[in-house]
């Protein structure tokens, strides 16, 4: 029974340490000098269309010919009204470069648009099919984990597969900041 106060003290110390870590600003909000910068303001939007190479869309739509080395450099969502939304190539955005199957789909993208930037950051990817909307990710059957781009499984290094899951049509957009 003498170890009970020690156990309580240990849990209290862990709780306090965890609260201190949670109160620290996110690493992404730190500058190289260690100072914190305010969190970037963004809006969350739902965009529809197809992901294309920006250079191809510019040539097709406006006759603007890019240099050869720029042909497959930048991805963009081309909406049905012809608007082009350049895509930030983070893990979700890079999926469209790595897996050409994604560029052949009609999609809805939940994106963040940051004030002052024309590029959008992909948060969720949905395929739009005749029978509904499907959330897209990659799945490892062995480890039962989802990933956001085509590659070897993060856990077992085995193969993963493109997964389509029927989406709830009433699902709300994440909040804007």
Which key features would you list for this structure?
177 residues, alpha+beta, globular, single chain, OB fold (Dihydrolipoamide Acetyltransferase, E2P)
Note the topology.
Layout: H1 3-23, E1 42-53, H2 54-62, E2 75-78, E3 84-86, H3 91-98, E4 107-114, E5 120-129, E6 132-140, E7 145-147, E8 161-166
Antiparallel strand pairs: 1-2, 1-4, 2-3, 4-5, 5-6, 6-7, 6-8
What does this structure look like?
Strands 1, 2, 3, 4, 5, 6, 7 and 8 form an eight-stranded antiparallel sheet that branches. This protein has about 180 residues and is an alpha+beta fold. A hairpin with a 5-residue loop joins strand 2 (about 75-80) and strand 3 (about 85). Helices cover about 20% and strands about 30% of the residues. The chain has three helices and eight strands, in the order αβαββαβββββ. The protein has one domain: Beta Barrel (OB fold (Dihydrolipoamide Acetyltransferase, E2P)). The chain starts with a helix and ends in an 11-residue tail after the last strand. The relative contact order is 0.14.
